[in-house]
Amino acid sequence: xxxxxxxxxxxxxxxxxxxxxxxxxxxxxxxxxxxxxxxxxxxxxxxxxxxxxxxxxxxxxxxxxxxxxxxxxxxxxxxxxxxxxxxxxxxxxxxxxxxxxxxxxxxxxxxxxxxxxxxxxxxxxxxxxxxxxxxxxxxxxxxxxxxxxxxxxxxxxxxxxxxxxxxxxxxxxxxxxxxxxxxxxxxxxxxxxxxxxxxxxxxxxxxxxxxxxxxxxxxxxxxxxxxxxxxxxxxxxxxxxxxxxxxxxxxxxxxxxxxxxxxxxxxxxxxxxxxxxxxxxxxxxxxxxxxxxxxxxxxxxxxxxxxxxxxxxxxxxxxxxxxxxxxxxxxxxxxxxxxxxxxxxxxxxxxxxxxxxxxxxxxxxxxxxxxxxxxxxxxxxxxxxxxxxxxxxxxxxxxxxxxxxxxxxxxxxxxxxxxxxxxxxxxxxxxxxxxxxxxxxxxxxxxxxxxxxxxxxxxxxxxxxxxxxxxxxxxxxxxxxxxxxxxxxxxxxxxxxxxxxxxxxxxxxxxxxxxxxxxxxxxxxxxxxxxxxxxxxxx
Length: 539
Prior knowledge:
The protein is an alpha/beta fold.
């Protein structure tokens, strides 16, 4: 990158705090719907969104003293009001801490102790869980998310008030004249300070709080827009929870930056998602292979009008070619992708025309992202060799909240060490070989579970598969394949192992096979291998 380009990017970085997305869209398209509740079909326009976020910021500042640098914790399901809350905390220069509502009391206690919020906003349905949290971890300042006098009531009352006294045209005229309504409040967030803390799953210990900054949101939006051709006319139905980076950044925040429309659902519901895609004329879909299969198996899949959908973005694991073909028969190309909470999260994208030719590939890195593939000594590896993926760019998190040790281990000389093993082919397409910690050695040879899973997913009678390494007296470790057969199918371990015989080297072929009715999955539908490892160790 040339000196002139670096200077331009540095100059743009310094202006990010002045870029008030809601104010801009309230001026340009105040009547356009920004967020809609997919269950009630209640929507809020950009004009309304802007005013309510300012009024909510004023309330939090005056009533609870929320200001620059303070944390506001939220324990709630995916709600329209949660998005309003986030934009309001940004106006105050505060940091939103969305808490996983599926956590146990002890786990919530850790998040609260670690983040030390000045205010906790929680839905009443979680009161019994919060009652089990130690009083010393709880903040004295609390506000109900729902019910009388709650955050939701405040937001809804504001919207009703706006709709009775102010037209979109009046707001547009005022903002175009650069006048500031009495409720106007500038953004107080700093480009490089956290506006959100998202806690990781904590597979190797207590969850760590990844810091998300306005700078990250801006560059993720820019990268996503350039690769996915986003525009104001786009519509997206999101089912990901808001304690997950995907819930915020695939594709909610890029859509807010582009003035587009996001429809929110509290949970994955295949029939409801398909119906909403037809009703709302969705232009982009998102899923992991598991959810994409569940959508394809819905009884209304074939008769739902999906002609407005340009393509579907798929992450998590490689999507089987048979499933890709199912979607392509509906004229919906598949764009495989890759990302992570601490970087992006929209990092790689595969062009839709390559979805079958480069099956299993995550494509190329997005704009303004540098990559390296290195060995255990940090040396760059050539094409075809598997090594750890390192990333550098303006979408990199500054690190983990109050955890300098973990930050230094993860971000080295400006490069984020992903812990993911990848390779790239002769054309520069990247492929994920698995997590560094998932790789196992069998008879001294490195074995990458994703490679085995890719082969087994081609078996016509296997619906889902996950492979882990387990201890073995002779080989040190061997592969154990957890298989979910297709409905009505009965497979034997020998049939599964035999399928791999001419497709994998002998040391890669799993020595053990276990059949399950379903694989354990996280909130995004991604397979939870840590649960399978715990299961293996207990047997």
